[in-house]
Amino acid sequence: MKVNPELEIVEELAKQILVAARTAPKAKGVDDLVFGLITDPEEKERLAQEMEKIAEEKGAAFKFFKRDADNVRNSDAVILISLNFNKPLGLDCGICGFRCEELVKQEKSSLDFDGPVCGIKLLDMGIALGSAVAKAKDLCVDNRIMYTIGVAAKRLNLIKGNVIMGIPLSIKGKNIYFDRPPVK
To answer: What is the pLDDT of residues 117-163, one digit of tens each?
Structure first.
């Protein structure tokens, strides 16, 4: 007899979640998203430690990075979804604040992420994130989209891209992302 065999399937469920993200609609059919999956405990710990380091560097207003680091440690897996922005779609829509030809000439920021990027591409990323967490919910896998994971993943060069978000996954008797302690 196997005890708690449901814990053995997290990687397969994560891959199903990533299929939902990959097949989400993309503007003009151009897919600039990159996906990653972390299941190794040492890699999760490295990510969590970087999140704690960021909390210390950024100060009191960013203590939530440390809280989220604890969530990463207690998660069964972490999905990374990245926008690897290469070129605008040529729509000149202005969402990013520029015409497409001007956008590519802008100096990249050296903040948490590398902007500016095409606003339509960010919408594509948002739709993929929404598809991923909807699929996770359909599979009864607890999850949460975390900006904090993306910042740490970017600093560690875990995945290529300008903007990265993380989705930790948990298969436990209680949702670890729901009753999280408030950040003080």
So the answer is: 999 999 999 999 999 999 999 999 999 999 999 999 999 999 999 99
Question: By the 8 A CB rule, do 125 and 19 touch?
Answer: no
Pick the closest to residue 32 from 160, 174, 145, 183 (CA basis): 160
Q: What are phi and psi of 97, to 5 degrees?
A: 100, 0
Label residue 124 exposed, middle or buried (CB < 10 Å: 0-12, 13-18, 19+).
buried
Q: Which residues, at least 6 apart from 44, have a Cβ–Cβ distance to it below 8 Å? A: 38, 72, 73, 75, 78
Residue 42: its H or E element: helix 41-58
Give the separation between CA 161 and CA 85, rounded to whole angstroms: 7
Q: How many other C-beta atoms lie within 10 A of the C-beta of residue 121?
A: 26
Strand partners for 100 = none
| Residue carrying the six token digits 């299929």 | 19
Report residue 28's pLDDT band, with 50, 70 and 90 as the boundaries. Answer: very high
pLDDT in tens, 87-108: 999 999 999 999 999 999 999 9
60 DSSP assignment: G
Q: Contact 106/100 with Cβ under 8 angstroms?
A: no
The amino acid that residue 11 corresponds to is: E
Q: Which helix (H) or strand (E) holds 130?
A: helix 119-138
